[in-house]
Structure formats: structure tokens, C-alpha cells
Amino acid sequence: MRQKYLIILAITIIIGLWLWLAPPQLWLNWTKRVDMNDPVATGERLTEQYRCRDCHRIRGEGALKAPDLTGVTQRLSNQELERWLIDPNAMKKNTAMPDFNLSETEVAALIAYLKSTDSQ
Asked: How far apart are CA 82 and CA 62, in angstroms?
């Protein structure tokens, strides 16, 4: 009986580590869904939460360790932006941009915010 519990515990730990270290998009979409009533405000909040300006400049604010994001929605398509935000390493091997494991709603909100800053 004890061996059965140890197997269940080991399986639970393995699944937990998998969801923590390499979560599938479906899991992220379920656990990291954000409010899309005001996607621009949500995107602005996420920009602060994920500290995007620690590396990027947006409308004159932030660092220039990474590309300036002012006008990025005019340079890149929505699909390209989504791919950068969901899997930066797939867009550019060995990029310094971390994978934040963003949900689809987080990605949509960040793009909405960047579009709003580009239209000002």
C-alpha cells in the first residue's frame, strides 16, 4: 500500500514540475487569463508587472538594452508580435528576451497596449 502512495506522489511531483517549468499553452490560458474588458489598461499593467521597460523603451520611457518598442505595431504584424511574446527564442535563437509563459489573453492585452501607444 505504501508503494502505491509513493508512486502517486512521484507522479504528482513530476506533473507539478512539468506545469511549473514548461507549462503548455492550454495550462497558461487557463491559469493566467486576464480581464479583457479594457485590454489597453490590462496591457499597460502587464507591461509594469513583467517590467518590460527594464529592457525596452516605450514612448520615450525605459531602457535601451533591447529594441525600442515605440512603433513596433507598425513594423511587425500581429502574428509576429504574438510569436515574439509567446516564444521569443523561436523568433531569434539565443535572444536575451525571457519567455514569460504568457497566456493568449496576456499577449492580446500587451499588443493592444502597444497599438494604443503607437496611435498617440
From this structure: 21
- Cα–Cα distance measured from residue 78 to residue 76, given in angstroms and rounded to the nearest whole number: 7
Beta bridge partners of 62: 57
Cross-strand pairs, 33: none
d(CA 11, CA 85): 31
What span, in angstroms and rounded, lies between the C-alpha atoms of 40 and 23? 26
pTM: predicted TM-score of the whole model, two decimal places: 0.84
Q: What does the block give as the cell for 58? A: 516605450
Q: Which long-range contacts (CB under 8 A, 24 or more apart) does 3-11 make?
A: none
- Whole-angstrom distance, CA of residue 87 vs CA of residue 107: 11
pLDDT tens for the chain, residues 1 to 120: 788 888 888 888 888 888 888 888 888 889 888 989 999 999 999 999 999 999 999 999 999 999 999 999 999 999 999 999 999 999 999 999 999 999 999 999 999 999 999 886
Q: Which of 114, 94, 97, 95 is nearest to 106 (CA)?
A: 114
